[in-house]
């Protein structure tokens, strides 16, 4: 620093007044006290803030901060006491209004005071850990005004009364309510909660408890739910208008508990309007409402789901054990599909596609479909009906829809191998009689089955289709080479079936009429000429024939009959009258088949090309048959062939069951061997579990049967029992 | 002549300094004073020299907050008194 500057550098005295005057503090305080009075009396405009600020500043600077602070507390407290009194004096409706106004004024005053005392706020208070001015102001308000006994209880009562009035439909001053609740929140969350919210929730709970009791006595389920929903929305709206947002969750909880949870069971079970009725009557709106409301309470949805599930199971069980229904399989399956559609719709439109409900529906269906062991057969019959006529003229997309629905039912089946057996039978009949409506539809379904169950399931089915195609080609070849030979003789059309692919039929005896034998031989020679090493056998129980018949008055008809029937009718070319025994002798057709065949020829109205003596419905060994000269029909072509696939009679059903059981044995054995080969050593229970798991996509194996198969394998030395533990098995390589 | 967005600061020796309201707001205390409404504040304990320096400081503070980082020069003689004023004004 230069010498010149040094001279100018003087430390001057503090310009601030040094305290000599002991009454200085008192004087200064008095100024400030007066100012506070003025502020509270709305006379602030006359004050010079700078002066006041300076005074406060000086007090703190000269170590009179304590005096200033305590003085502040005293003054403010006394003012607030006055204010309390004036608020308390307010009558009735004006109480809240007065409280609100005084609160606003206090806030403004507090602001000004804080500004004046800012220096103290900044320095003195942090040093002494005292409450800052603003907070102090709030605390004093809380303690002196709000918690003043007379005011506290009255405030609470009036607030709750207002809410009650609004709930019964009156209009209240929401803005005022909002200001008051905001005040409580500003004073501290615990103030809001203890002074108001806690009581609000209690009172609301009582209110809704009563109201719900009233409602439930007087309303039906749908109405009740509407009212509950309305109240819920009201409360949410109330919160948004004049309560703290955090109260929303709490009050909705209260409403839900009192109105929904307490009456859950009663609502669901309500007669004539409960859950079941809603489902039956398809009240989607009501169901949707119930879903939304019940979702908010614990176990609400579980209750709905359980009631729905048991109802579905009961309905399903009824359907499956109703003998009337079971008479018509196609109708029966259609009912199942309708049932599923109905519930799907409910779940989609009312239950928001809730996965848990979907699962419950699926498990219910799985449960009752498998209650009836004939379900696989019936589903196959349904498909058969559709593929024969049901899907005629239906668009491709709709066909896919129906087939997908069928697949859905198929998935529920536990005994998928039974279905396979029947499906094969029905498919064979369809293919051989050429009765399938759409080849594309057939193939589409095969593809779906393949996707679901794998190649093995459908390989034979596909084999059947291939055979049909190959036969066509063969016939073309046959006619090309032998066409000229046939001339006036009977026309032959052959389908060559690969034995493994088609449902096995026992070979039956049947003597073909002489007129046919010729061409049959020709075909046999032709075929074996091109395919050496194969064996052909005529399946006389599966063929059809078209016969031209001339009756008494010369009327001609073309009769479409089965092969058996053809054999019988051809006999009448040489005789007018034949006894049962004679027919049996010549044709050598097995008894039950012959009886059935004669029945359809003689006992069916409109198709009685033969007359029977005596006239009765059943065929007896002693009956005689005559050619019915007087037969008439409106149509030229008459079909007397074997009817379409029908539900099996009991004995037939037993037979099929047996065959299925037989087929299962090797499958179980194969599974056991596979498992043991991989594991080497395994105990009994685990084998059973593993086998069940492996086979479950086809059927549910019976543990007893598994045990038998294991023993059979032990006998054949594929497995052995462990020497020490009888329950343990070992694989023998 | 008096625009709405200016204030007048009056020193102990009755010197008047007219500055923008924004500048005055740098001091939180001045910002709180009710006299702001009227547009003038009196400081009976602050001399003109100091008050002048304070006004300069206000403008410098505004500049600095807008990114212009320059130095604020204080004459050594002023420093002592200059310490008290900001304490008072919370600047």
Q: How many DSSP E strands of chain B?
A: 3
- Tell me the strand percentage band of chain A: 5-15%
For the sheet with most strands of chain B, the description reads: 3 strands, mixed
Q: How many whole angstroms does the radius of gyration of chain B measure?
A: 13 Å
Order of strands, widest sheet of chain A: 1-2-6
Low-confidence stretches of chain A: 1-6
**What is the overall pLDDT average of chain B?**
78
CATH class category name of the domain at 372-502 in chain A: Mainly Alpha
Do you know the CATH architecture of the domain at 372-502 in chain A? Up-down Bundle
GO molecular function, one term (chain A): ubiquitin protein ligase binding
Family (chain A): Belongs to the cullin family.
Organism (chain A): Gossypium barbadense
Domain Cullin family profile (chain A): 374-602
Give a verbal description of the structure.
The complex is a heterodimer of chains A (733) and B (91). With 733 residues, chain A is mainly alpha-helical. Among the domains of chain A are: 20-144, Cullin Repeats (5 helical Cullin repeat like), CATH 1.20.1310; 372-502, Up-down Bundle (5 helical Cullin repeat like), CATH 1.20.1310; 542-637, Cullin, Chain C, Domain 2 (Ribosomal Protein S5, domain 2, 2-Layer Sandwich), CATH 3.30.230; 648-729, Winged helix-like DNA-binding domain superfamily/Winged helix DNA-binding domain (Arc Repressor Mutant, subunit A). Helices cover 68% and strands 5% of the residues of chain A. In chain A, helix 10 runs parallel beside helix 12. The longest helix of chain A has 32 residues, at 455-486. Chain A starts with a helix and ends with a strand. With 91 residues, chain B is an alpha+beta fold. Chain B has one domain: Potassium Channel Kv1.1, Chain A (2-Layer Sandwich), CATH 3.30.710. Helices cover 46% and strands 14% of the residues of chain B. Chain B is built from 5 helices and 3 strands; from the N terminus they run ββαααβαα. In chain B, strands 2-1-3 form a 3-stranded mixed beta sheet. In chain B, helix 4 packs across helix 5. The radius of gyration of chain B is 13 Å and the shape is globular. At the A-B interface, helix 3 and helix 6 of A face helix 2 and helix 5 of B. Chain B: Pfam families: Skp1_POZ.
């Amino acid at each position: 620093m230069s010498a010149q500057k040094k001279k100018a550098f003087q430390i001057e005295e503090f310009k601030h007044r040094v305290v000599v005057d002991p009454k200085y503090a008192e004087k200064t305080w008095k100024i400030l006290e007066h100012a506070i009075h003025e502020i509270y009396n709305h006379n602030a405009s006359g004050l010079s803030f700078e002066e006041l600020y300076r005074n406060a500043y000086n007090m703190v600077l000269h170590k009179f901060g304590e005096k200033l602070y305590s003085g502040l507390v005293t003054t403010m407290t006394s003012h607030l006491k006055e204010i309390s009194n004036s608020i308390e004096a307010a009558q009735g409706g004006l109480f809240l209004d007065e409280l609100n106004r005084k609160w606003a004024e206090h806030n403004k005053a507090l602001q000004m005071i804080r500004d004046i005392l800012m220096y103290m706020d900044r320095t003195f208070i942090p040093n002494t850990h005292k409450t800052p001015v603003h907070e102090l102001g709030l605390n004093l308000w809380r303690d002196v005004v709000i918690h003043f006994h007379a005011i506290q209880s009255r405030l609470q009562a009036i607030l709750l009364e207002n809410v009650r009035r609004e709930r019964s439909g009156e209009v209240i001053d929401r803005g005022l309510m909002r200001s008051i609740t905001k005040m409580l929140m500003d004073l501290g969350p615990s103030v809001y909660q203890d002074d108001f919210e806690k009581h609000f929730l209690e009172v609301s709970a009582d209110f809704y408890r009563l109201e719900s009791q009233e409602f439930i006595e007087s309303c039906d389920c749908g109405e009740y739910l509407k009212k509950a929903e309305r109240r819920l929305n009201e409360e949410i709206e109330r919160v948004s208008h004049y309560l703290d947002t955090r109260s929303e969750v709490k009050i909705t909880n209260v409403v839900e508990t009192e109105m929904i949870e307490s009456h859950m069971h009663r609502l669901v079970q309500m007669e004539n309007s409960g859950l079941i009725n809603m489902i039956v009557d398809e009240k989607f709106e009501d169901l949707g409402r119930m879903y939304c409301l019940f979702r908010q309470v614990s176990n609400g949805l579980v209750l709905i789901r359980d009631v729905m599930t048991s109802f579905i199971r009961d309905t399903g069980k009824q359907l499956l054990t109703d003998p009337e229904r079971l008479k018509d399989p196609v109708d029966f399956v259609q009912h199942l599909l309708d049932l599923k559609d109905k519930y799907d719709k409910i779940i989609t439109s009312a239950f928001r596609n809730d996965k848990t409900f979907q699962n419950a529906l699926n498990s219910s269906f799985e449960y009752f479909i498998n209650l009836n062991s004939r379900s696989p057969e019936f589903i196959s019959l349904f498909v058969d009906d559709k593929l024969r006529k049901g899907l005629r003229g239906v668009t491709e997309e709709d066909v896919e829809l129906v087939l997908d629905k069928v697949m859905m039912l198929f998935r529920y089946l536990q005994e998928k191998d039974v279905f396979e057996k029947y499906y094969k039978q029905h498919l064979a009949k369809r293919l051989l009689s050429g009765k399938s409506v759409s080849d594309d539809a057939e193939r589409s379904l095969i593809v779906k089955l393949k996707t679901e169950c794998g190649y093995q399931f459908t390989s034979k089915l596909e084999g059947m289709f291939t055979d049909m195609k190959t036969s066509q080609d063969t016939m073309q070849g046959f006619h090309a080479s032998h066409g000229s030979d046939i001339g006036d003789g009977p026309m032959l059309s052959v389908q060559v079936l690969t034995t493994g692919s088609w449902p096995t039929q026992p070979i039956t005896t049947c003597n073909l009429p002489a007129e046919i034998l010729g061409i049959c031989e020709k075909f046999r020679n032709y075929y074996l000429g091109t395919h050496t090493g194969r064996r052909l056998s005529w399946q006389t129980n599966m063929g059809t024939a078209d016969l031209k018949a001339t009756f008494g008055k010369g009327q001609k008809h073309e009769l479409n009959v089965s092969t058996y029937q053809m054999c019988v009718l051809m006999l009448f070319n040489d005789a007018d009258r034949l006894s049962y025994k004679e027919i049996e002798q010549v044709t050598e057709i097995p008894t039950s088949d012959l009886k059935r065949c004669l029945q359809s020829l003689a006992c069916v109205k409109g198709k009685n090309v033969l007359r029977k003596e005596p006239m009765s419905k059943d065929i007896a060994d002693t009956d005689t048959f005559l050619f019915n000269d007087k037969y008439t029909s409106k149509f030229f072509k008459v079909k007397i062939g074997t009817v379409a696939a029908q539900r099996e009679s009991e004995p037939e059903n037993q037979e099929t069951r047996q065959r299925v059981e037989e087929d299962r044995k090797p499958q179980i054995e194969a599974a056991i061997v596979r498992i043991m080969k991989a594991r080497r050593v395994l105990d009994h229970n685990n084998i059973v579990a593993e086998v069940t798991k492996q086979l479950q996509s086809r059927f549910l194996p019976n543990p007893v049967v598994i045990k038998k198969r294991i023993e059979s394998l032990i006998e054949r030395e594929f497995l052995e029992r462990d020497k020490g533990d009888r329950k343990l098995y070992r694989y023998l390589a | 002549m008096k625009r709405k967005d200016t204030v007048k600061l009056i020193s102990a020796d009755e010197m008047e300094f007219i500055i923008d309201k924004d500048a005055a707001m740098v001091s939180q205390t001045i910002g709180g004073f009710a006299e702001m409404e009227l547009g003038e504040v009196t400081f009976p304990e602050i001399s003109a020299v100091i008050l002048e320096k304070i006004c300069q400081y206000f403008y410098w503070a505004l500049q600095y907050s807008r990114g212009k980082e320059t130095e604020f020069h204080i004459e050594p003689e002023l420093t002592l008194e200059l310490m008290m004023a900001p304490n008072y004004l919370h600047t």
